[in-house]
Fold this sequence. Notes:
By secondary structure, the protein is α/β, with parallel strands linked by helices. The chain has a single domain, classed as Alpha/Beta hydrolase fold, catalytic domain (Rossmann fold, 3-Layer(aba) Sandwich), CATH 3.40.50.1820. About 35% of the residues lie in helices and about 15% in strands. It has 14 helices and eight strands. One of its GO terms (molecular function) is catalytic activity. InterPro entries: AB_hydrolase_1, AB_hydrolase_fold, Epox_hydrolase-like. This is Pimeloyl-ACP methyl ester carboxylesterase. Pfam families: Abhydrolase_6 (PF12697).
Amino acid sequence: MGLHERTTLDMTDTDAATRPYAPFGLDADPASSGLVPVTVDTELGPLRVHRSAIRTGSTATLLLHGAAGSWTTWTPLLAAARAAGEPLTDVVAIDLPGWGDSPGPRIRSRLTLDSLADVVWRAVTQLGYTRADITGHSLGAFIALHLAAIRPAYVTAVRLVSATTFSVLASIEHPVRSFSAVPGFTLLLGVFRLLRMGGDRGARLVRAVRHAGLLRVAVSPLFRHTLRVPRSVVNALADEVRPDSFVRAAEATRGYDPQRRWTSIRCAGWAVRGDADSFVPSRDLTGLLRTIPLATLTEIGDCGHFAHVERPRETLEALGLATSRRPLGTKNEAAAR
């Protein structure tokens, strides 16, 4: 069946009561996830990558984190896959430039969406892979879509967790006019602009919030149950607050036309969002069908912006990375929003 012959809309509300919330913390030890760290030289500087110790094929399982994270944000998902007896193989988990252990480019103007995609792809090919099955979260999901659009012959699948797409793009272009689309993101971007201007003072403010024990309050918009999120997750978010990198990444999307760019995507697609995600409205999820008509869309119940941390097992199933162990009922009202 051809890519544009039918539309699949599978908006499901998983039963959250039978599985624990945020069952795994973040694990900064790559060996625990069966990964080894390597550094790849790129035009934007050294790129830190954590890869599977053994390469079993030519297609990488490429993991791209969001704008407040690093490769460790994927360790709950990797742990859930191992616990289910379906471990992910050929993993390539990247610290994007400016996050984790990958420094940002010294020349700010060199950070563009195309340059980000190029350095990510260089890491994939340098590690001996010719194709990629990409899972991305938030900003990482946006980069995954861009890679699938510019390298359609080499991207075999895109699996998106709370992809920041149409509403976030509108907010970046017109923050006042589009404020109501994603007010949380618009405010966060404004705060990060101020923190970036503050330089070291901005960094000290973040540390002060942490030392005052207010981190959980600060990150509460990101999660459905902030008090139940493991401490390692909250601490990692504080460590990865990179106002300059965040603002640069946002600016790199100015003028981007997803309707035009993403029509070249030819691979299969899966996309999920939490039903309490304040950064990705339901209309953005269903809007993906305009550019990826055969995408499988899932709304995960009792979950916020970090489905791969809050509901890792459900996320694996919804992204087609694990066998579903329960029937999922259709949530028809989501399609009408």
